[in-house]
Amino acid sequence: xxxxxxxxxxxxxxxxxxxxxxxxxxxxxxxxxxxxxxxxxxxxxxxxxxxxxxxxxxxxxxxxxxxxxxxxxxxxxxxxxxxxxxxxxxxxxxxxxxxxxxxxxxxxxxxxxxxxxxxxxxxxxxxxxxxxxxxxxxxxxxxxxxxxxxxxxxxxxxxxxxxxxxxxxxxx
Length: 172
Prior knowledge:
single chain, 172 residues, alpha+beta, GMP Synthetase, Chain A, domain 3, Ribosomal Protein S8, Chain: A, domain 1, 2 domains, 3-stranded mixed beta sheet, 3-stranded antiparallel beta sheet, disordered N terminus
């Protein structure tokens, strides 16, 4: 190497350093929080927004105030708000978002309930040696069941078409 050559890499004008996945997810969380904050302001609702990164996706939680109507019956309004928030993030950042939204711990409480169901079902499958088909569930609920069943050491699969798609827990 001659005296005039540099060991510092040169970034061309059209090259931009890639963001890490964590930085991208944090940016998704910030955009989503701004959107949700504006929504709360418009509707004159109080709530604290917590931003996190969980399981490879941005996770936002709104707590406080009287927010039960934002959850709706069986989380239907929450699902709609989550989808609108994902669309707002996609519009802003140009990439599809898989963020998860929780309001007043609805999803975290549901996760605990579903994990308990998965454990009970796994115990029954192990003792009988027969597959068990659970009631139809939405994508969030199925994912919790699949993840828990996998942690237990069994396998599961989804079958059927929306809105009647369900999880089948299989014996070893």
